[in-house]
Amino acid sequence: MKLPKDKFGGRFVMTRRLVSFLLLVLVLTFVTACGNSDNTSGETQNENIGESEEEAVNNAEDDRDYNQKVEVEMADPEGENIGRVILNGEESGGVQFEVDLVNIPQGKHKMSIVKSNVCEAPEFKADVEADNKELAADIPEVEAGDNRKVVTEFTVDNLTFDEEGEGKTLLEGNANSLVLYGTSEQDGERIACGVIGGQ
To answer: Which of 21, 110, 131, 190 has the fewest CB atoms nearer than 10 Å to its CB?
Structure first.
């Protein structure tokens, strides 16, 4: 017995199979499209997360202390203020010194940073001898002229405010002091002192 034909000459069985096949193709196409959309969304989300993490790292680096600025008020053995030294942390890790002092004996003077936050006149020495230890820092001598003033700027490369600075001496506010020494004729006694970060 032959199956009836539709008006296009096809058979109903073939038509049903064709329709079923087309429906299957449509379903597979839809599922694939949804999967690609989810993957794209996931990749975009992962990229955004990666960018956010990178921004957080960059912001953390920007917030590091290497660019710290500290003003050190210097006092003489009588406790009188004789000026200040501004310490500017540089991005390279070094520290720039801006020295502006008055009433300093004429001649060359050594300057150092000691491991102490005690600057008590007249000797500017802590009670514990270990606290008077000088930090390893290549600070050049400063010179006072006939006007008894010291006005100069220089950078000390092996000092840093950055706790992650490798191969450099860490400069900690409220834990160190800046000391100025007398000339050789003055036996190199401490003639001025200021606590770094102190009030």
So the answer is: 21
For residue 76, report the phi and psi dihedrals to the nearest 5 degrees.
-90, 180
Average pLDDT over residues 149-163: 89
Tokens 């539709």 label which residue? 6
Strand partners, 143: 108
Do 100 and 160 fall within a single domain? yes
CB 177, CB 166: distance < 8 Å: no
pLDDT for res 60: 43
Q: Do 59 and 111 belong to one domain?
A: no
Under 8 Å between Cβ of 160 and 171: yes
pLDDT of residue 66 exceeding 70: no
Supply the pTM of this predicted model. 0.64
pLDDT range class, residue 149, cuts 50, 70, 90 = very high
The answer to whether residues 27 and 119 belong to one domain is no
Q: Which domain holds residue 23?
A: 1-63
